[in-house]
Amino acid sequence: MKRFLLFVILLAAASIQANAQWGEDEMDETAPWKERIFTGGGLGASFQKGYSFVSVSPLIGYKITPKLAAGLQFQYRYTKYNVGSFKFSANDYGISPFLRWNFYGPLFLHTEYEYLNYTSMDLDGSKVRKGYNSFFAGGGFFQPLGRNAGFFLLALYNFSYRDPQPNELSPYDSPLVIRAGVTAGF
């Protein structure tokens, strides 16, 4: 995990020098709606002792102006807990409307609301589905990969985060969330 984080930080440092070729320089205010749509998403994974997950999060967005975009991100996550005699797996899913503002070159600010339907365990050991609401805000950068695609790295803070109660499974283990992914226009 430390090697992956080091790789992402080095990639971020190298990418900040790039000019945003896809976004504000590519679209004018009169662009047709088809040129304003973008798609993409992210893949995530974490493998730790006792806890692991794999996630897929496709997104679709619309460039309102050359610097402002809104969209929806969908999420699916498979989580597995394996600590001593405690073994538990879950399938979680959610939706997140988001807003991004490109304020300087490849850098942008991002905010979103997320509703996550996740599986938890009740005190008697039975699985129970719960809803989890989060409000995220943060920033990131976008590195173009050709004319209509790019890589993004995003660091968000969950302002709705609360520490889990004893014997409670929470969908997040920290208020800090790091995401990376690829977007593409069509």
Automatic annotation (TrEMBL):
Signal peptide: 1-20
Keywords for the protein's UniProt record, in alphabetical order: Signal
Lineage: superkingdom: Bacteria
Name of the featured protein: Outer membrane protein beta-barrel domain-containing protein
Species name: Pseudochryseolinea flava
